[in-house]
Amino acid sequence: MNRRTFLLGAFAGTAAIALGVNLYSPEFSLPDEGEDKDYRLLFGVLLPVMLDGALPDVASHKQAAQNRTLDAIKQSIDVLPDEQQAELFELLDMLENRLGLLLLTSSMTPLLMRSPGELTQMLETWRHSYFSLLQTAYLGLRELVMASYYACPEHWSRLHYAKPELFK
């Protein structure tokens, strides 16, 4: 066996194993996971990065604001038209899948294992990408998160906004 045949065989074997590992999905499900997956973990990773500077500084208030925003994101997704929900769920599924991450971010490292700086860099890359699909993905996630965060009246004070009073 010559060296080229050996290297080609090793490369093909490695590629086949990598593809098999990526396509393998064990048959288990979490107790709360059902048809309506709400992607709380994924948004929980992205929220501190996307809302940097808007979240409170106190840890307990910050956690409460994140939980309230995650609930608002779920409600916002529920009122989206079916076509937009399907597109959003496709993007979120790709962000949870390693092959999808490789296509979208050029890295197979899960988002949970990335630092806030790496997540910020990923989002900025999407924002300034010349692929309109990545720009649309960035804008869709950003609009969903921002609209859900500022839909909660307790966050209006950061904008110096007060609800108008009808009768004084």
Describe this structure in words.
- With 168 residues, this protein is mainly alpha-helical.
- The protein has a domain of 117 residues.
- Helix 2 crosses helix 3, helix 2 crosses helix 6 and helix 6 crosses helix 7.
- The longest helix has 21 residues.
- The protein is elongated, with a radius of gyration of 20 Å.
- The protein starts with a helix and ends in an 18-residue tail after the last helix.
- Relative helix content: 55-70%
Unreliable residue runs: none
Mean pLDDT over all positions: 84
SS strand fraction: under 5%
Count every helix, treating DSSP H or I runs of 4 or more residues as helices: 7
* Secondary structure: number of strands: 0
Shape: elongated
- Supply the helix-strand structural class: mainly alpha
Report the radius of gyration as a whole number of Å: 20 Å
Distance between the termini: 91 Å
Biggest sheet statistics: none
What is the chain-wise order of helices and strands? Answer: HHHHHHH
